[in-house]
Amino acid sequence: MDQPYYGLPCLTELETFEVLGRRRSFELTASEVNIAPEVVSRRVNAVEEQLGVALIASSGSGVRLTEPGEDLHRALAETFTRASDVFRRLKRKQSLLHLPHK
Question: What is the CATH number of domain 5-97?
């Protein structure tokens, strides 16, 4: 396997985990990310394997994040929100300057 970017798991795996942390459901996560629920499970397992810790625990009505899972989810949510804010600001600035799209 190639060396992970910045020592991180694949971004699609991290995105899937972030959505699972918000949705607390494999089915809702699968729907949002447009993949099968089994793929959600595989992606989360891949992150857990790289970290060597459990990120989720099954709960009667859905998914519960472990303490490490809560820590990772919080970091990912903050990072993705910040990246999204910067992306929107740059797009807004670009449209104000009427630069052509590439």
Answer: 1.10.10.10
